[in-house]
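Design a sequence for this backbone.
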């Protein structure tokens, strides 16, 4: 936020934008904010849920539905993990740099792989908590939609 604000002020007040600010924000800072924020949001139980149907199910069906939702979410995390891992390997082999600055592009992709790995591990561990109702994905404190 500070970099973008400084770039905007420099661009419009001084007519001298900060070179590479947009690319650094796009390729480094947004990747870190999104991927690292996913694990934090999951642990906080703040993913959006729509519960109007599941709340009306009998306890057995509710538990089965929670397991199904957790497994689908875990499968999605695994797909993202495989995709980010392959992108990271490809990006680290390549010497592609930002167009405005001599900074390699492969590093932020590697950080997204680490963050995807962390979320997948957290979800795997959390799978054991679904039965007891303590899963981060189904916390009651989480804001329902």
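Sequence:
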């Amino acid at each position: 936020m500070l970099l973008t604000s400084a770039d905007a002020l420099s661009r419009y007040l001084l007519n001298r934008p900060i070179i590479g600010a947009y690319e650094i924000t796009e390729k480094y800072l947004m990747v870190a904010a999104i991927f690292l924020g996913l694990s934090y949001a999951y642990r906080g139980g703040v993913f959006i849920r729509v519960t109007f149907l599941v709340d009306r199910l009998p306890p057995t069906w509710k538990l089965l539905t929670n397991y199904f939702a957790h497994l689908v979410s875990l499968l999605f995390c695994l797909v993202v993990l495989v995709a980010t891992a392959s992108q990271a390997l490809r990006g680290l082999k390549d010497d592609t740099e930002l167009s405005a600055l001599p900074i390699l592009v492969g590093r932020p992709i590697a950080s997204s792989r680490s963050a995807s790995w962390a979320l997948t591990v957290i979800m795997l561990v959390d799978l054991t908590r679904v039965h007891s109702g303590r899963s981060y994905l189904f916390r009651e404190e989480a804001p329902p939609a």
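The radius of gyration is 20 Å.
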